[in-house]
Amino acid sequence: MQNKTLSNFYDFASILMTAILSVAVIFTFLFKISAVDGSSMEHTLSDGDKVIITARDWNVEYGDIVVISQPNAYDKVLIKRVIATEGQTVTIDASRRQVIVDEKVLDEPYIAETVQVQGNMIYPLTVPEGYVFVMGDNRNHSSDSRDSSIGLIDCRYIVGEAIYCVGDDHLLTDSVEK
């Protein structure tokens, strides 16, 4: 009887340790959790939302919501949407409330309001190799690539792509057509 109880305890402890190790490996190498700080991604993401991000092992594309660890004037990790990738040319025309990439006005149903803040970058701006141009979905309340204090993002500083919002239980990868 005592051997059976000891055997059951050992089996339970073994299963529990395997589960804990599995979760640790998954969240160390495949996924991470990050918190949204601020309102720059409203209405897609809200301040305090938790997002699951993938490990950085994919080609960055227009529309991806990325977590960025590049040093910046705010000394914090940023979560922004990729607007243009290497080789593309960006123009922000605040007077017409337009974001233009490669001479095409972007159709952005996910934004809170059209762009009214041009920033201090000089346009047209061609994104160099290994960089991306990012903006917050809350265009007029976001510090992003339009401002030289953030600037273009070196892809080596992209931690991962935000794929799921835990707070609102929704996928983030379907918010834009690519």
Fold and architecture overview:
- By secondary structure, this protein is of the alpha+beta class.
- Helix content is 16%, strand content 29%.
- It contains one helix and twelve strands, in the order αββββββββββββ.
- It has one helix spanning 2-30, and strands at residues 31-35, 50-54, 65-68, 78-85, 89-93, 98-101, 104-105, 125-126, 131-135, 153-154, 158-165, 170-171.
- Strands 1, 2, 3, 4, 9, 10, 11 and 12 form an eight-stranded antiparallel beta sheet that branches. It has a four-stranded antiparallel beta sheet with strand order 7-6-5-8, with no helix packed on it.
- It is elongated and about 80 Å long.
- It starts with a helix and ends in a 7-residue tail after the last strand.
- The model has no long low-confidence stretch (mean pLDDT 86).
List the helices and strands and how they pair.
Elements: H1 2-30, E1 31-35, E2 50-54, E3 65-68, E4 78-85, E5 89-93, E6 98-101, E7 104-105, E8 125-126, E9 131-135, E10 153-154, E11 158-165, E12 170-171
Antiparallel strand pairs: 1-2, 2-11, 3-4, 3-11, 4-9, 5-6, 5-8, 6-7, 9-10, 11-12
